[in-house]
Design a protein that fits this description.
The protein contains one helix and nine strands, in the order αβββββββββ. The chain is α+β, with helices and mostly antiparallel strands. It folds into two domains: 32 residues; 91 residues, no CATH class. A five-stranded antiparallel beta sheet has the order 1-2-9-8-7, with no helix packed on it. A four-stranded antiparallel beta sheet has the order 3-4-5-6, with no helix packed on it. β7 and β8 form a beta hairpin. The longest helix is centred in the N-terminal third of the chain and has 30 residues. The radius of gyration is 30 Å and the shape is elongated.
């Protein structure tokens, strides 16, 4: 009986040691420091940045020109879907009347003393997701 008791005890010790090793390995893997987040663009997903504007349908954005005292309000008011999609953008100078422009991808809009190129058009067939457009300021 002594031999059998020793064999059973040895087996339990080996199993306990294996379980402890697995737990310690798992704990060591979890305690490692997390990787630093990747650097991202300073441009916001929506809104205005120095050289980029992203508009959602019905939401205005104010763009300052070279003269900060004369901002221009831009608003995506509609779109034309089809083989060559286009967006309708209203441009309203402070205190002035709005003018609407229909622009396709790659076309330019003159606003706030700068030329803005239509760089992205997003059109959804769903009313829950409005259309969007990204304008990129062209460097001179």
């Amino acid at each position: 009986m002594t031999v059998f008791d020793a064999a059973g005890r040895t087996r339990r010790i080996v199993i306990a040691a294996a379980v402890a090793a697995v737990l310690l390995t798992g704990a060591a893997a979890c305690s490692q420091s997390r990787p630093a987040p990747a650097a991202s663009s300073s441009a916001p997903v929506l809104g205005v940045d120095t050289d980029r504007v992203q508009l959602l349908e019905g939401t205005p954005a104010s763009v300052a020109g070279e003269d900060a005292a004369s901002p221009v309000e831009l608003q995506l008011t509609g779109y034309e879907d089809g083989a060559e999609p286009a967006v309708v953008i209203a441009v309203r100078p402070r205190g002035g009347q709005a003018a609407e422009y229909t622009l396709a991808l790659g076309e330019h809009l003159e606003a706030a003393g700068s030329s803005w190129r239509v760089s992205e058009i997003g059109i959804s067939g769903s009313e829950s997701q409005p259309a969007s457009v990204t304008l990129t300021r062209e460097s001179e």
